[in-house]
Amino acid sequence: MSFPWLTVLIVWPLLAALATATAGRGRGRDASSARVVALVGALVEVALVVGAFLAFDTSRAGVHQLVETHQWIPTIGASYAVGVDGVGLLLVALAAGLVPLVILAAWKEQGGDHARLRSYLAVVLVLEAFMVAVFAARDVFLFYVLFEAMLIPVYFLIGGFGQGAQRRYAAVKFLLYSLAGGLVMLVAVIALYLQVPAADRGPHTFLTDNLTHLDLSQNAGRLMFCAFFLAFAIKAPMVPVHSWLPDVAEHATPGTSTLLISVLDKVGTFGMLTLCLPLFPEASRWAAPFVVALAVVSILYGAILAIGQTDLLRLIGYTSVSHFGFIILGIFTFTRTGTAGSSLMMLNHGISTGALFLIAGFAISRHPERSQRIADYGGMRITAPLLGGTFLVAGLSAAALPGLATFISEILVFLGTFSAVKWAAIVAVPAVVLAAVYVLLTYQRMFTGTVPAGLAPDGKVPDLDARERTVAGVLVALLLVLGFLPQLGLQFVDAPATTTVKQIGHTDPAPVIGAAADLTTIAPAGNGTVKEVAA
Amino acid sequence: MNDFHAPLIDWAAVSPVLIVLGAGVVGVLVEAFVPARLRRTVQVALALVALAGAVVAVGLLWSSVHQSARLSVGDSFDLTPFGLAIQGIVAALAFLSVLVMADRSGGQDAFAPTAAAVPGSRYEEEARRAGLEQTEVFPLMLFSTGGMLLFTATDDLIVLFIALEVLSLPLYVLCATARRRRLLSQEAAFKYFLLGAFASALTIFGIALLYGFAGSVHLPVITDALAGRGSTPLQGLHVLAITGIVLVSAGLLFKVGAAPFHTWTPDVYTGAPTPITGFMAVCTKAAAVGALVRVLFYLGQGFDAPTRHEVQVLLWAVAIATMAIGTIVGAVQTDIKRLLAYSSIAHAGFIIVALVGFSEAGAKAVLFYLAAYGLATLGAFAVVSLVRERLTTGEGGEKDSVILGEATHLAQWAGIGRKAPWLTAAFALFMLSMAGIPLTAGFLAKFGAFSAAVDAGAWPLALLGVVASAISVFFYVRLIVLMVLTPAPDAGVEGAAAAEHAAADVAPGGVATATQQVTRAVVTVMTGWSPATVVVTVCAIGVVLLGVVPASVLDLAAGAAKFVP
Questions:
Q1: Distance (Å, rounded) from C-alpha B192 to C-alpha A483?
Q2: Which residues in B have their CB inside 8 Å of a CB on A?
């Protein structure tokens, strides 16, 4: 019996949450000690993730490793089964890596009310446990349970600790959207279980591996695919079921938005990749044209709406709608290049959006009234060069500038799409230009020109302090490192992409000539992995 | 000519029913012979011991009933594993109900000093001053529970009808015993009695029709007749049988609280004393569902395809209407007890969804659902009974204050999360369980119910159930938002409104003098250990355990559901 890495990774944040919730309680004791407890707990989790990486055999990234399987509810065939392949591991790492940064960024949030901050951090840690668990779940029932159960902590993070009078409305909207999708998926989960012949049903029927080779009728498969896809599309979020996201982004704290959009929403695309495609290959191929079309609409629509936003956090929310469109587009090309690109993009987009939200949060905290209106800012570049610089880097990574992490994943998605569905790639390309527009316009409005009197009467906006520099520095460093050494991430997503494309039973079209050359020039250190993807 | 044979009575089989009814009779004697100051203690102890005894008896009978599949007494009492499981659920939940009834947080229990007095009369006022207590509620409650235990353990429709009356009559009386809002309580009792009598009449008429059809009131004989193996002159008249089944079902559905027989539920649940509301919502529903399952599944064996189809169409219609009314009308309620009443209607709909397949999976799902629903609902009503209005007179602060009745208006629940975090957490847990959020008992219950429906090919019904579920989440979550996220309204404003409210409540007698002074009523939550908080704790633990490690309970339910052909 090897060390149960994943179970430890799931249980530890819960213990840390308990310690946080009880820290500094009692008469005359300072509730601010809770944030130290939370930070230490989250850092230990990062150390544990490093341990899990060491235990993970990268050369076999395509198969599930660190596997644990225990009976849970034998009568209905549900088991506690966890295990990760390369993609799952990267997303677990993303969750664990962002949480300490979010805790650090929230250090002085909640209006200085330490008891309130303590509750906030405890809920964040509970959410971390759910996030790790959902990416590690290998049992459809367990996945569903976690998928639904984690709505509750998120709901409280938005409604209880968010900002603005409309936050409860945003929280309810989020919950109802997600539950509606989730409950439709529940019917499909039940139906899927009942497709297993009664004689074959055992205590482990719900394992994903046991459900992948079912002999589904065409109609049943397609209906179930639609139910699963609806739940994931709401989560992801994809046009036309994305409308909860801008509201949530506007009213949640930047830390909550980071966790929600950078990590949690990846459950949607992760679910498409690991459940929709392997469970319903026929239906996936059938639905692919519609999905690709909707993804392209998401990409353009999200980017165009982002340009028109006046609220900073809302703008970042819309950019994510656009980026999730890219991820979904890559997955539904059924090519190794596109799938690998999408998998990598889940990680990169998480880092880049996290950086945008957190740094935007730093900017907002400098406004006396915590205004989120872009028009209320200006000229901050002069007195706060670090704030401006890191914001620009984070923004450019959203626009997929070469040299930053997001570039390599976006180009892989484009290459995959071009080889499979040419028109989609051609139509989606202008989004790159639109991204440059919304990033640069925002930067220009907020950081150049004159400082409005409402922001700082003396024209001096304080620059990032040491705590904020740490948060922004780590994120920017990650974007640069993964931008110049993309094989660090690619080695984990390449093999799972091969497995997925094989599962869907789709012939991989020959990649575009010249793509390999492009890739090798962009990523000179890509010792074979990238070439392999493209070749 | 002497062809009378005394029935062979298996005393062990009837022991749960006998213990409870026997304790009820002893309770009446206690009323007559035990001195007043001891009476309450003795009654509570007696009721608790009797119900615990019934639970133990069910446990002891469990294995023998499972081996022989059934224990019987003549033709009129048949203990099947399913019936026994329902008895276990009813007895255990009734035990918890007694604890809520016995709660005296705030100095008084929830029952009127003399329920027979005219509300607002001098006699009532004097009884209140003398500190009288209506301890008869405990024997009444035991009689009702005894009827419920009998309800699910018989194949004889006449015994079924008697059990129905035994369980109903004490409930009518109990509904009228609320200490506060006496008129509302009596109105509730009257309404319940009239409609209940009407439902009983339907049932007995249905039984008569079935008797005419099959020449017997015994379910196996009726089943045979339905299957064409009977020998009565009318046995070709299927329309007679269908009408009879529909009428009997209507009577049972009335007790279940399913649409279109649900109209009594909101008024009665609101008017009755909260502990009794909890008892009715949980135990009556469990027993009635048990009887319904038994009758329908038994007769279902004799159905030919068209008959089966007709009955299923009926159940579909009832399930859809019940879920729709429960969730949609529930979403606009402003009174917590009415809201929980509509929630219980919605749950009746989900339970019927599980039944439509007449399958073993359905019976199993029903058992688990009743346990999960029972724990959450009982716990929720226990919390409701602890959220009170406190009337402060003069400037004396807490010392001069009087604890009044429950604060049931939703606006009064705003921000009580700050006042009582643990009770609020428990209540939120119950709401999440009722909403069917994973990792609570309610999720697995709904999972089971919808699985049974999909398995039986009723996936459109399951889909509708899912939609109803999503709507119901809206109002459960709204409650949590209200308690946890909404700040308590400004004390002054609320005080004025609540004082007016309270004054109207206590105006006949009560704290009549207080209304002339400066009055301030605020919402207060009775925290601290009391029987009701014990119940809340037990229910909360149960809901979590059933949600996280349900395997053993599901196994028990699966074993108990095996009586289905």
A1: 73
A2: 432, 437-439, 443-444, 447-448, 450-451, 454-455, 459, 462-463, 466-467, 469-470, 473-474, 477-478, 481, 484-485, 550-551, 554-555, 558
Residue A183 to residue B467, Cβ atoms within 8 A: yes
What is the C-alpha radius of gyration for chain B, rounded to an integer number of angstroms? 24
Determine the residue of chain A that is closest to B437 in CA distance: A149
* pLDDT tens digits, one per residue of B65-111: 887 766 677 778 888 889 999 999 999 999 999 999 998 887 778 88
| CB proximity list for B229: less than 8 A, separation 6 or greater | none
pLDDT of residue B393: 66
Q: What is the pLDDT of residues B354-394, one digit of tens each?
A: 988 888 889 999 999 999 999 999 999 999 999 888 777 65
- Domain range summary for chain B, segments of one domain joined by +: 331-558
In a domain, A282, yes or no: no
Cα–Cα nearest to B529, from B99, B48, B179: B99
**pLDDT on residue A266:** 92
A370 inside domain: yes
- Residue carrying structure tokens 């809206």: B474
Q: What is the pLDDT of residue A510?
A: 52
For B483-500, what is each residue's pLDDT tens digit?
Answer: 887 777 654 444 444 444
CB B432 within 8 A of CB B358: no
Percent of chain B with pLDDT over 90: 47
Tell me the Ramachandran region of residue A245: left when phi exceeds 0, alpha when psi lies from -120 to 50, beta otherwise.
alpha
Asked if residue A38 belongs to a domain, the reply is no
Residues of A in contact with B439 (CB under 8 A): 145, 149
Q: Which residues of A touch B (CB under 8 A)?
A: 71-76, 144-146, 148-149, 151-152, 155-156, 159-160, 168, 171-172, 175-176, 179-180, 183-184, 186-187, 190-191, 193-194
Q: Does any domain span residue A96?
A: no
Task: Provide mean pLDDT across the span A367-389.
Answer: 87
Give me the interface pTM, i.e. the ipTM: 0.84
Partner residues linked to B78 by β-bridges: B72
Global pTM reads 0.88
Dihedrals phi, psi of B218, to nearest 5 degrees: -95, 125
Are B137 and B157 in contact by the 8 Å Cβ rule? The answer is no
Of A49-63, B64-78, B308-322, the range with the lowest mean pLDDT is: B64-78
Q: Which domain holds residue A398?
A: 293-535
Can you tell me the distance from the alpha carbon of A149 to that of A526, in angstroms, rounded to the nearest whole number?
Answer: 40
Closest chain A residue to B364 measured between Cα atoms?
A75
Residues of A within 8 A of B463 (CB-CB) are 184, 187
Domain count of the fold of chain A: 1
Our CA-based measurement puts residue A233 at a distance from the nearest CA of chain B, in whole angstroms, of 18
Minimal Cα distance from A160: which residue of B?
A: B485
| HSE (side-chain half, CA atoms, 13 Å) at A315 | 23
For chain A, give the percent of residues with pLDDT over 90.
41
For residue A26, the model assigns a pLDDT of 66
A–B interface: beta-carbon pairs under 8 A: 76
Cβ distance of B485 and A160 shorter than 8 Å = yes
Q: Give the least confident one: A205-214, A422-431, A487-496, B281-290.
A: A205-214
Count Cα neighbours of B541 within 13 Å in the Cβ-side half-sphere.
Answer: 5
